[in-house]
């Protein structure tokens, strides 16, 4: 906390001289440590930053950086100088976090140096179930499922495979809890299958469900006619 003022005088043999005045403040050194809970996290997961500063009770600044985007947080340490922060990155890519303190009258400012981590696309899963294993032509089959981790209003593609092997695609959208429901009326008798698909994007990987089978029978009248004609 002491300010030291000083003056420097310089002379040469020719009698020339120069003078410089300045001052400096005597302060204690500061050390900041920083460590990450993981070096790689999936989108939607959080990362925990922990560390310490050599002076308890300081208010630190944490800068989370990805590309040109910076998210800043202020965080107070405890009486021992310990701190912990949990952050959920909002995009995939290469990230860095820097912990710094501006200093005060008695202690120099300092920073931890950058700590790097990577955010990768979320690994997704999707399920698919049918309301009945057997229906009569003209009836609807109801398909339900869930996307996890939960994504609201995600577009789900339902791929129905007809008895002849050709496919029909229908769309459904997830609710706030990640579930979806869709109804479909098959127009052909025989064995059908349905499978749910979630397309990938910049934040999430694509996902496929297991195929579920169901059978579409003819009406009893048509079956009776075929029996009589036979």
Question: What would your notes on this structure say?
Answer:
This protein is mostly beta strands. It is 4% helix and 54% strand. It has one helix and 21 strands. The protein has one helix at 220-229; strands at 3-11, 17-25, 32-36, 40-42, 47-53, 59-66, 69-76, 82-87, 93-101, 110-111, 115-120, 125-126, 129-130, 134-136, 141-148, 155-161, 167-173, 179-184, 190-198, 207-208, 212-217. Strands 4, 6, 7, 9, 10 and 11 form a six-stranded mixed β-sheet that branches. Strands 14, 16, 17, 19, 20 and 21 form a six-stranded mixed β-sheet that branches. Strands 12, 13, 15 and 18 form a four-stranded antiparallel β-sheet that branches. The longest helix is centred in the C-terminal third of the chain and has 10 residues, at 220-229. The chain is rod-shaped. The model has no long low-confidence stretch (mean pLDDT 94).
How many helix segments? Answer: 1
Bulk shape: rod-shaped
Q: Biggest sheet, open or closed, and with what strands and sense?
A: 6 strands, mixed
Q: SSE string, helix = H, strand = E? A: EEEEEEEEEEEEEEEEEEEEEH
Strand content: over 45%
Give the beta-strand count: 21
Structural class: mainly beta
Please state the average pLDDT score: 94
Low-confidence stretches: none
What is the terminal-to-terminal distance? 108 Å
Radius of gyration: 33 Å
Share in helix:
under 10%
Overview features:
230 residues; mainly beta; six-stranded mixed beta sheet; rod-shaped
Topology:
Layout: E1 3-11, E2 17-25, E3 32-36, E4 40-42, E5 47-53, E6 59-66, E7 69-76, E8 82-87, E9 93-101, E10 110-111, E11 115-120, E12 125-126, E13 129-130, E14 134-136, E15 141-148, E16 155-161, E17 167-173, E18 179-184, E19 190-198, E20 207-208, E21 212-217, H1 220-229
Parallel strand pairs: 4-11, 14-21
Antiparallel strand pairs: 1-2, 3-5, 5-8, 6-7, 6-9, 9-10, 9-11, 12-15, 13-15, 15-18, 16-17, 16-19, 19-20, 19-21
């Amino acid at each position: 906390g002491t300010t030291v003022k000083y003056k420097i005088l310089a002379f040469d043999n020719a009698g020339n001289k120069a003078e410089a005045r300045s001052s400096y403040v005597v302060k204690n050194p500061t050390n900041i440590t920083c460590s990450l809970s993981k070096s790689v996290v999936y989108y939607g997961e959080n990362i925990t930053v922990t560390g310490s500063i050599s002076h308890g009770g300081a208010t630190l600044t944490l800068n989370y950086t990805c590309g040109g985007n910076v998210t800043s947080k202020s965080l107070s340490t405890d009486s021992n100088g310990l701190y912990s922060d949990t952050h959920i990155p909002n995009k995939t890519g290469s990230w860095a976090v820097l912990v710094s303190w501006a200093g005060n009258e008695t202690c120099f400012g300092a920073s931890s140096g950058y700590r790097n981590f990577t955010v990768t696309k979320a690994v997704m899963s999707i399920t698919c179930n049918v309301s009945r294993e057997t229906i009569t032509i003209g009836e609807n089959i109801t398909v339900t499922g869930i996307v996890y981790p939960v994504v609201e209003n995600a577009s789900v593609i339902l791929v129905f495979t007809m008895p002849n092997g050709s496919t029909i695609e229908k769309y459904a959208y997830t609710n706030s809890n990640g579930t979806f429901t869709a109804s479909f009326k098959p127009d052909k008798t025989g064995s059908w299958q349905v499978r749910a698909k979630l397309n990938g994007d910049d934040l999430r990987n694509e996902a496929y469900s297991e195929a579920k089978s169901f059978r579409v029978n003819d009406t009893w009248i048509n079956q009776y006619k075929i029996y009589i004609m036979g």
